[in-house]
Specification:
Strand 7, helix 9 and strand 8 form a beta-alpha-beta unit. The radius of gyration is 22 Å and the shape is elongated. It contains twelve helices and 13 strands.
């Protein structure tokens, strides 16, 4: 199973699919083949692995898979059926697939006489697939909020200038994070004020291979000549100010993770609504003072209402400091939702 997780990590980190790895073992425990899911529309991990083995060697073999074999027909057929037809005698997987359209592969295999073992390295698989799993279970993408500020919490000087608070290393790290998410979200205010391109770029300014879908939230129109309109992924606009509805709409567009760079208004509203799953805060060793704070009202009226965070890591990026944090586990609404959530409608094609 550890090898399966290593194989899963070879698949694309973004896109409308889960990253899954598989290892096929002979009845004697020898590795016959390995496979992983290479993206939507391609063979799933277990089918990818079985395709590398002579059919007669598959009879009586064991398939070790990081996620429950699917039980539906999407762009590919049900993996549970493929395993049954191949004569696989034993299937071992880490965690159940939470999608209602996909879940049930384990039961189908058991009904077909296959020995099914579940829960092997389940915690490792949950951590590996946390963004995707949350998006399926809650019906909204994983939300990462980012801001850059001075040590005294200012996102800009008093006159509104903000380029550049942080140095080159921190800015490049932001571009890498953009590429690691399915979408990047800002409000119309940011578009009108800063005219960002919302692309993910390398050190030399070149476009990275993975580009986030640019999303602009709000009612004001995006100008025809705005830089974001030249984005290679096109542009998605979401009118209105209903954040939960906007996130659900993104999930319906196949977005499993969203990187929020929308300035204080959007970031503060998401925090106040309890819709943030991770924070990336880039701190520059400067003091600005003044009114241009990185966050506005986040729904904290008194100290007892403070929003506690768990700091996961601190990283030096040149002269700057990156603080990676998440809502305190005991006080995270999403954690309670996840514990209580049953299988959800999974629109991904894994």
């Amino acid at each position: 199973m550890r090898r399966g997780l290593e194989l899963a990590a070879l698949g694309p980190a973004v896109g409308d699919h889960a990253r899954v790895g598989a290892v096929v073992l002979s009845p004697a425990g020898e590795v016959l083949a390995e496979g992983w899911h290479k993206g939507a529309g391609t063979p799933h991990a277990e089918v990818d692995a079985m395709a590398k083995v002579a059919p007669e060697l598959l009879r009586g073999a064991t398939a070790v898979v990081t996620l429950e074999p699917c039980n539906h027909t999407g762009r590919t057929g049900p993996c549970a059926v493929a395993l049954l037809e191949a004569g696989i005698a034993r299937v071992v997987y880490a965690i159940d697939d939470p999608g209602t359209n996909v879940h049930g592969g384990g039961d189908r295999l058991r009904a077909g006489g296959v020995d099914v073992v579940t829960g092997v390295l389940a915690d490792d698989a949950e951590a590996f697939l946390e963004r995707w799993l949350l998006s399926v279970r809650l019906g909204r993408p994983w939300v990462t909020v980012k801001w850059a500020s001075s040590l005294d919490g200012r996102a800009a000087a008093a006159d509104g200038t903000s380029q550049w608070i942080t140095g080159a290393a921190a800015r490049q790290h932001v571009h890498e994070q953009r590429a690691a998410h399915d979408a990047i979200l800002v409000g119309t205010g940011t578009v009108l004020t800063d005219d960002p391109s919302l692309t993910a770029r390398g050190d030399a300014g070149e476009l990275l291979a993975d580009q986030p879908l640019p999303v602009v939230l709000g009612d004001r129109p995006v100008p025809d000549d705005a830089a974001v309109r030249r984005h290679p992924r096109g542009l998605l606009t979401l009118p209105g100010h209903d954040l939960e509805a906007a996130l659900r709409a993104l999930r319906e567009h196949g977005v499993h993770s969203v990187f929020v760079e929308g300035g204080p208004t959007v970031a503060s509203a998401l925090i106040a609504a309890g819709l943030v799953d991770e924070y990336l805060v880039y701190l520059a060793p400067v003091l600005l003072g003044g009114p241009r704070v990185a966050l506005g009202d986040v729904g904290v009226g008194s100290i007892g209402d403070r929003r506690r965070l768990d700091v996961l890591s601190t990283t030096s990026l040149g002269p700057d400091l990156l603080v990676r944090a998440r809502p305190h586990r005991a006080a995270t609404p999403a954690a309670d939702e996840l514990r209580n959530a049953g299988p959800q409608d999974d629109r991904s094609t894994s």
